[in-house]
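Hey, I'm writing a tutorial for new members on how sequence and structure tokens pair up, and I'd like a real worked example in the thread rather than a made-up one. If someone can provide the structure for the chain below, I'll link this post from the tutorial.
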Amino acid sequence: MNRSSALFLAFVMLNGCQSWSPTRHDGAAPVADSTPAPVAKPQVYKSFSEETVFNLLTAELAGQRNRFDIALDNYVAEANKTQDPGVSERAYRIAEYVGADQVALDTSLLWAKNAPTDLDAQRAAAIQLARNGRYDESMVYMEKVLQGQGDTHFDFLALSAADTDPETRKGLLQGFERLLKKYPGNGQLIFGKALLMQQDGDGKGALTLLEDNPPQDGEIAPILLRARLLQSLDRGKEAIPLLEKNIRQYPDDKRLRLTYARTLVEQNRMDDAKVQFSSLVQQYPDDDELRYSLALVCLEAKAWDEAQSYLNELVERGAHVDSAHLNLGRIAEVRNDPKTALGEYEQVGPGTDYLPAQLRLTDILVSSGKATEASKRLADARDAQPDYAIQLYLIEAETLANNNKEAQANQVLDQALKMYPDDLNLLYTRAMLAEKRDDLTQMEKDLRAIIKREPDNAMALNALGYTLSDRTTRYAEAKALIEQAHKINPDDPAVLDSLGWVNYRLGNLNEAEALLRQALQRFPDHEVAAHLGEVLWANGKQREARQVWAKALKDQPDSPILRSTVLRLTGSETL
């Protein structure tokens, strides 16, 4: 092959392979569109040697045959050898595509060096440096983009720091502040800094920064961030007029309307949210995410007919099919149509909706006296979906127990543990069922088996400690177990409740009261309220005890522990 034809072929293949997707192979979401789309413009290459042309052709052919390892190795080698911007970029794109992080960083820097006036190259280098925690160096490249008046998108830098340590975020924040001194009033810098402040837990500061620096015309992202910040600071009602004002200014902006609709949902204004989502679906009829959101809003608003209509549309369109069947089943249950509900749940395939569907299906059958059929269906499901076997055993056991079939539930768990003897969830569930069946020996045996394998299992420590304090007189032993759980999870309200209860059993009323007040404040549960009321009663605070019980009974009037506690201490079930 002569040199000119080889170069022509290389040019054709280099541009003809732009269909390689830039999506990361590991499924990670790109940060602020951090992986630029493959360039559509023809690249300009300098003259190459025959060896280079051959290596590039080999790389392209390898890429077409999914041998990206060969393609990447060849391109990286030739990028370093030729220092050609086009080859450097191509090497970077392939590295991004296959998720070779270190190579992506190296080739982005090579591309930026070889194309100093190319803003895409500078931005790629900044992104890769930010991903690797080298924020100061990243800022140098982003400043070049600023100077070139390009599309800066500084928000990706803040987003990339979301899961890092406070010191890293602090260093990045200092970098933003330095750039803002050089470029005061730059909207992208202000927005990026506000986003970083939010990630660092300074929501109030971020909101103040955005309010003090109103966005320029056409800048929507700062408005959306302000609305989110207001919502997170329990000032969601202020977000509504902010969004409404900007919707009037930008009536065709989908992001504003969607944020407005979601904010209405968060404020439980379901009818208003339904109107907004309906409008969005009419405006974007091919957007099935919007259609699914509208269906969920209709469900929350108990607009069953509308919800059913939208869910059926989703099934017909092949979008959110499993979720649609799951929710159609729930609608059928609300309408007392178990046969239709079963038919919907049966159509839910493996995925996030599979286990909820199996749970509802099992409950319908067991509660209607068809436990044998439920057991058969679940056995078939375990054979068909072995990855879900343990969860399906748990669904069967818990559903049987909830329908007063404790003996059958225990048999299911025994069977499951023969198959999966090391599964701690099965052991814990059997322990809780044993406690319900007053088989404290079995309960303690299973919980101690868990603790032996996982000495820091706070849930098992707390469960055993609480049961010993509530059902036996082994108070000192119970307290030691609960205190160990408290050291592991000091803020867990369930552990605080147990610690308060064992102190009550030991006669430490003031300490018990303080702990139970903390528990109830963090988790207003009827059982915690029963415990706190009993301690208050014993501590001479009968009036406050009645108030605590009355409030809890208002929220959960059928609570057996509340009712029994009130009757035992006051002689009457009514307060």
